[in-house]
Amino acid sequence: MLVVVSDTHSTDGHRLTNRTLDAVREADLVVHAGDFMRESVLDAFIDEADTFLAVYGNNDGPEIRDRIPVARNVTYGGVEFAVTHTRRGGNTALSMFGRERGADVVIFGHSHRPGFDGTGPIPLLNPGSHAQPRGNRKAHAELEELPDGGLRGRLVTVDGDTFETFRIVPDE
Question: Cβ distance 21 to 43 under 8 Å?
């Protein structure tokens, strides 16, 4: 399973709880889309996840920016993800970012608003924030490989309730 989180905004640890903590511990790969706030928070995630990849966000200082990139590509289950915290220009800029990086899907954060938008040229996935939802529900994303190819995804609250499902099938 691939687990996607973002926007922790913590000064005192990863702030993972309940289903989100369990999912991070169970995952084959955890991706964080930025805004840890403190280097110790980044380290706390690294300690919890078997395999952890991240990008930095606009609230991450030089100690974090020296350790992780502003953008990266990640492959899981045959799907190529382009990961960033945000791009000025909204969904159009995010789609262009994904195209430039040869991605099937763009993972991003920043807004704290969980959602999957598959209507554009490149699907966009925002896991929301598991720790500081800013008026949205606390959430993360879970994606699992499908036997016939592609991924089945869901947005999940920290209490384990699925509130949105989606499927990703890369272009062949």
Answer: no
